[in-house]
Amino acid sequence: MSKRVLVIDDEPEMLNLVRYTLERAGYEVSTCDNGRQAWDTLLKSKPDLLVLDVMLPGIDGYSLQIKISQDDQTKALPIIVLTALEPSKTLFQKFPQVVGFMTKPFKTDALLETVEKAIGKASPN
């Protein structure tokens, strides 16, 4: 069974790039483009990993991270923060479930390596 990754980002180009990169590597990818729907999408898709942007419409990534870390259903979910805001790294360092922090723009190879470290290689289809 494929490992599932949920990507939350409000930039369509970024969603497409991350989805394309991870699907080519064999991951099953779901996406969400705003903070308001992120929580429901997260509970519905039950991902093995979350790739989370910081600046989102509705609920920002940091507020969403706090909610995720406090809920029994999601507090063990590994998260990779993907943002253009390098200074926000210090905000996320206190969360043990944040297993990676990448700033935009990023290299797709580096993203794949970070995902593989977080949840392992995708199983071949």
Helix-strand blueprint:
Blueprint: E1 4-8, H1 12-24, E2 28-32, H2 35-45, E3 49-52, H3 61-70, E4 79-83, H4 89-92, E5 98-103, H5 108-119
Parallel strand pairs: 1-2, 1-3, 3-4, 4-5
Give the key terms:
125 residues, alpha/beta, Rossmann fold, five-stranded parallel β-sheet, globular
Give an account of the 3D structure.
The chain has 125 residues and is of the alpha/beta class. It has one domain (4-119): Response regulator (Rossmann fold). The chain has helices at residues 12-24, 35-45, 61-70, 89-92, 108-119; strands at 4-8, 28-32, 49-52, 79-83, 98-103. Strands 2-1-3-4-5 form a 5-stranded parallel β-sheet, with helices on both faces. Helix 3 (61-70) links the parallel strand 3 and strand 4 (79-83). The longest helix is centred in the N-terminal third of the chain and has 13 residues, at 12-24. It starts with a strand and ends in a 6-residue tail after the last helix. The mean pLDDT is 94.
